[in-house]
Write a structure and sequence with these properties.
The chain has 359 residues and is an alpha+beta fold. Helices cover 19% and strands 21% of the residues. A hairpin with a 5-residue loop joins β1 (43-47) and β2.
Length: 359
């Protein structure tokens, strides 16, 4: 007896390699093919409105239901283009809900402007943590030529500072034309004084030439250049133009008039510009937090007093970053083009409000 004919394939199934286009550059084809190696029951491979490639997929939970995951990759000339590790951004869901949330997120990621990490779409939580930040070394030739040869306006940059065997980073936002926005302790710009600022002291955001930023806090003893890094997040949510505009808006606001190494340092400023959430890469590292405490006036290193023996390294270990939002930031001066903060995302309320609620 002959076998019954096979049913026709479902019209809902996407054709093979549907995520590729004939006109797609070779490097982008390679990135999308690497993202396509995921083999879950459901996945979406697409590109955000800012040009970042990503994959959304779900995994079954042992206890039932599904979690939603994200992987991303970004091609940038002169820098590596790795695919990120799977990042859980939602769940648990029933399967139909997971697919619905993923498709809604795909639609949202295709629009301009994108959301900030402090105001994310419903049922989605893209975390911001030290483990999800990638630092790419900028070639040392950046100091001898124009930084525009290696960086783009809106790039968040870290310059390396070393003290007591620890490496810290002074961050800034590259504005283009060799200028950098960065947040400084106004009273004493020495690196040690910045680390000792455990109580709020006067600070200000400055726009300075590249060389002044790179050597603002630290000069290697051998006269060489400090190492500089470009910062990359798992999900890019603002264009370079928008990041520079936010840096100028925040500089003209009253958000960063006082410096505190733990709660309001240069990295809180630069991440706020880049992502819409305030986060410190260094202060989520327990060893560095302890190192700052040892430099605090009154510690044994600085003289006078000692650290309580009941304080351990675990006291300073932070598993989740401090994330805050621009709830009262005045929105004036930014362009009214598509890169302004989205109307559906409450990055600002009253344009006449002078204060900013941070930390």
């Amino acid at each position: 007896m002959p076998s019954p004919p096979l049913p026709p394939p479902s019209s809902a199934a996407p054709p093979p390699f549907a995520f590729l286009r004939p006109d797609m550059p070779e490097q982008e084809v390679a990135l999308r093919c690497r993202l396509a190696t995921i083999d879950p029951p459901f996945k979406i491979i697409s590109t955000t409105s800012l040009g970042q490639h990503y994959a959304l997929f779900m995994k079954r939970r042992i206890r039932g239901g599904y979690n939603l995951f994200l992987k991303s990759a970004e091609s940038r000339e002169g820098f590596p283009s790795p695919v990120t590790q799977p990042l859980q951004i939602g769940g648990p869901f029933v399967r139909e809900e997971a697919e619905e949330v993923a498709r809604a997120l795909e639609t949202r990621l295709s629009r301009k402007p994108l959301f900030s990490l402090s105001h994310q779409p419903a049922k989605i939580s893209i975390p911001l943590s030290r483990q999800l930040v990638t630092l790419y070394t900028v070639p040392e030739a950046v100091h001898e030529t124009s930084p525009d040869c290696y960086l783009e306006p809106g790039d968040e940059v870290y310059t390396e500072c070393r003290l007591a065997g620890l490496t810290f980073f002074h961050s800034g936002i590259y504005a283009g034309d060799g200028l950098v926005y960065h947040f400084m302790n106004e009273a004493d710009a020495s690196f040690t004084s910045m680390l000792r600022s455990f109580a709020p002291i006067k600070g200000r955001i400055v726009l300075e030439p590249w060389i002044d930023y790179v050597r603002a806090l630290y000069e290697p003893p051998d006269g060489s250049w400090p190492t500089v890094y470009r910062v990359s997040y798992a999900m890019r949510v603002r264009s370079g133009r928008a990041i520079v505009e936010w840096a100028e808006i925040i500089r003209n606001s009253k958000a960063f008039t006082h410096y505190d190494i733990r709660k309001r340092n240069c990295q809180h400023f630069s991440s706020l510009c880049s992502t819409g959430a305030s986060f410190s890469y260094d202060m989520t590292n327990g060893v560095k937090s302890l190192g700052c405490l040892l430099l605090k006036p009154g510690s044994t290193i600085m003289g006078g007093g000692r650290i309580s023996p009941r304080r351990s390294l675990s006291d300073f270990q932070t598993t989740e970053p401090e994330v805050t939002s621009l709830l009262t930031l005045p929105f004036t001066g930014a362009s009214q083009a598509h890169e302004q903060p989205p109307s559906e995302v409450d990055d600002y309320r009253n344009p006449t409000t002078a204060g900013v609620s941070l930390l």
